[in-house]
Design a protein that fits this description.
The complex is a heterodimer of chains A (114) and B (112). With 114 residues, chain A is mostly beta strands. Chain A is 0% helix and 54% strand. Classes of the chains: A mainly beta (114), B mainly beta (112).
C-alpha cells in the first residue's frame, strides 16, 4: 500500500497567491523528508531536505523564503510556494527515507500558476 | 562531471527482449544503490535496491553492482510494453548529508 500521501494532487492558482502542499507519511515516523520539483521531460531536482523539528536544508539556488518548508511532526511536512508565478508551475513531489536509505515518493502535486 | 550518469536514451527494445540499463557513479564511498521507475506524469517508485557486489534478482528484474568499476545496471527480462517508462538510478553515500543522488534517467520504450 501507499507509504506517502500528498495533497492536493492538482492545484491551479492565480499569480501572486500562495499554495500549500502537504506530504504525509502513512505508516512510518519520518524524521527526514525530501521535496523535489520536476519540469516536463526533465529530471528530478531536489529542492530541500525537511527535518522534523528543525529548519529545512535547501539546495543551492532554491529560495528558502519563496519555498517555505515546515516539518512539524513525524508524519507531516508541508511546502508552501509563496507568491507563486507561472514559472513555478511544475510537478512537486515529496519523499521519505526508510530502511537502508530507500526513498518512497508521494504521488506528486501538479501546480499550475495562471 | 555528474555524480551519477545514465544514458538518456531513448532505449527501444521489442517485446520479450532483454532491456539493459546502465548507470555509473563517481564516489567510491557510495554504499547503497537503487533503481526507480517513473511512468509519464507519475512520481518515481522503487523497484530494486542493491548494496553489495554481484547480482540481485526480483522477478523479471536483475540489478548488478560492480563497485570496483563503479557501475550498476538493471536488466529487465521478457520486456513488456508496460515496462515503458523512465528508469532512474540513485546512489546513496553517508557523506552526502543523508541524501541520495539521482541520475537523469533512461527512457525505455518496449514495442509490441
Amino acid at each position: 500500500g501507499a507509504v506517502v500521501s500528498q495533497h492536493p494532487s492538482r492545484v491551479i492558482c492565480k499569480s501572486g497567491t500562495s499554495v500549500k502542499i502537504e506530504c504525509r507519511s502513512l505508516d512510518f515516523q519520518a524524521t527526514t523528508m525530501f521535496w523535489y520539483r520536476q519540469f516536463p521531460k526533465q529530471s528530478l531536482m531536489l529542492m530541500a531536505t525537511s527535518n522534523e523539528g528543525s529548519k529545512a536544508t535547501y539546495e543551492q539556488g532554491v529560495e528558502k523564503d519563496k519555498f517555505l518548508i515546515n516539518h512539524a511532526s513525524l508524519t507531516l511536512s508541508t511546502l508552501t510556494v509563496t507568491s507563486a508565478h507561472p514559472e513555478d508551475s511544475s510537478f512537486y513531489i515529496c519523499s521519505l527515507k526508510r530502511g537502508r536509505n530507500e526513498q518512497f515518493f508521494g504521488p506528486g502535486t501538479r501546480l499550475t500558476v495562471l | 562531471q555528474k555524480e551519477v550518469e545514465q544514458n538518456s536514451g531513448p532505449l527501444s527494445v521489442p517485446e520479450g527482449a532483454i532491456a539493459s540499463l546502465n548507470c555509473t557513479y563517481s564516489d567510491r564511498g557510495s554504499q547503497s544503490f537503487f533503481w526507480y521507475r517513473q511512468y509519464s506524469g507519475k512520481s518515481p517508485e522503487l523497484i530494486m535496491s542493491i548494496y553489495s557486489n554481484g547480482d540481485k534478482e526480483d522477478g523479471r528484474f536483475t540489478a548488478q553492482l560492480n563497485k570496483a568499476s563503479q557501475y550498476v545496471s538493471l536488466l529487465i527480462r521478457d520486456s513488456q510494453p508496460s515496462d515503458s517508462a523512465t528508469y532512474l538510478c540513485a546512489v546513496f553515500y553517508n557523506t552526502n548529508a543523508g541524501k541520495s543522488t539521482f541520475g537523469d534517467g533512461t527512457t525505455l520504450t518496449v514495442k509490441p
